[in-house]
Amino acid sequence: MRATIIHAPGDIRVENAPEPTITAPTDAVIRTVATCVCGSDLWSYRGVLPIAEPWAIGHEYVGVVEEVGSEVSTVRPGQFVIGSFVASDNTCPNCRAGYQTSCLHAQQVNGAQAEYVRIPIADGTLVATPEQPDEELIPSLLTLSDVMGTGWYAARAAEIRPGSTAVVVGDGAVGLSGVIAAKELGAERIIAMSRHESRQKLALEFGATDIVTERGEEGVARVKELTNGVGADSVLECVGTQESMRQGLQSARPGGNVGFVGFPHGTQIDGQELFFSHVGLRGGLAPVRSYLPDLIQRVFDGRINPGKVFDLSLPLDQAAEGYKAMDQRRAIKTLLRP
């Protein structure tokens, strides 16, 4: 089969690789219908995360079940499925509490930018759609494997309530998905922080009511101005830098909450400052498996269309161009078709 392999920073190749097989009775093998490049993939591509040796990259996927192990009972060959980027049994105490990415038996899913992918612990990881989806739904369903579920977790972690005011820091695919989540959860005012016109337009289409182009202290001041000097009830931090975290914490009102889902790089939080701010902080790897049934139904019902974050679609063999386009910010998110 064809699979995307990262060899070194900036060195993405689509190569021949062995097709995956069932290695445990709880495995499933799916034929990938669509996959994509994640913003977190760029950390390796840019050399921020070390690459000890070439490895098969990619963790977002939708596809059709080809084969299942002898102990798999919740999905069967021929079904269209979506799964999380972390495999989980969905039965351990952490899973039952809604934190499947902290499953006691968690395994990272890798190698999804390929024609086929093996999914461990399939019963707890994969969710079948109610029927075979129409072609136009596939991009939106693909976002549920990570970015839409991550944006949803950010909104939930920030405790958005009906009638509240939310700020979204970050205008990538996760931040834009967070705008959708904020609207779906009932936020009355949604302030999107973005400097890019195309992303601003999409944020407004998804439900943002205000756009803030300023960053840092100026961005915080603008948020305070829009909220009568108080700050937001909920802030979704979807970047992961020191500046974005500080901007998020300072944009929240006393008693407000920050949900942070941007993978932290060099981020430090002043404990004393947080103590006196009365701002709540929750984040981590998004437990997207917890939200899959609900989000799948919202896509099928036409309530949400997060697939619009894909502004570049390429055949799998052109994965290297998809990475380059995202790295150069010529694309928000690249969809790949095997």
Largest sheet: 7 strands, mixed
Pick out the low-confidence regions. Answer: none
Number of structurally distinct domains:
2
Radius of gyration: 20 Å
In total, the number of strands is 18
| Rough outline | globular
Distance between the termini: 10 Å
CATH class of the largest domain: Alpha Beta
Assigned CATH superfamily of the largest domain: Medium-chain alcohol dehydrogenases, catalytic domain
Strand content: 25-35%
Average pLDDT confidence is 97
CATH topology of the largest domain: Quinone Oxidoreductase, Chain A, domain 1
Structure annotation, total helices: 12
Helix content: 25-40%
Task: Quickly give the structural class.
Answer: alpha/beta
User: What is the N-to-C succession of helices and strands?
Assistant: EEEHEEEEHEEHEHHEHEHEHEHEHEHEHE
CATH architecture descriptor name of the largest domain? Alpha-Beta Complex
InterPro entries: ADH-like_C, ADH-like_N, ADH_Zn_CS, ER, GroES-like_sf, NAD(P)-bd_dom_sf
Protein name: Zinc-dependent alcohol dehydrogenase family protein
Domain Enoyl reductase (ER): 7-336
Cofactor: Zn(2+)
